[in-house]
Amino acid sequence: MNKTDLINNISSKSGLAKKDVENVLNGFLGEITDALASGDKVQLIGFGTFETRKRAGRTGRNPQTGNTIEIPESNVPAFKAGNKLKEAVN
After folding, report:
1. Mean per-residue pLDDT of the chain
2. Which domains does the chain have, with CATH numbers?
3. Rounded to a whole number, what is the distance in angstroms from the first to the last CA of the chain?
């Protein structure tokens, strides 16, 4: 399912216009992005938690030249599923 499919499904189930659903979904995703960018986590009880995790720096290798390169540490987004979501999938 992609974003368009999600918008269409929510629109048909809720009776809202597709444009309104798209605005709400874009706002929702924007708020999660802003929270993660500022170092906060977003916790949706029963669904899951969006957070950032630190990835340690490491030494890598360029596959074309074989030269070693230093890969700096970075923050990566992560999602941990909640209990209700885990139960629904199983």
Report:
1. 95
2. 3-88 (4.10.520.10)
3. 19
Better-scored residue on pLDDT, 26 or 90: 26
Q: Which two tokens stand for residue 56?
A: 């340690």
DSSP 16-60: --HHHHHHHHHHHHHHHHHHHHTT--EEETTTEEEEEEEE--EEE
Q: Tell me the helix, strand and coil percentages in the chain, rounded to 5.
A: 45, 30, 25
Show the tokens assigned to 50: 């969006």
What is the C-alpha separation between 71 and 41, in angstroms, rounded? 25
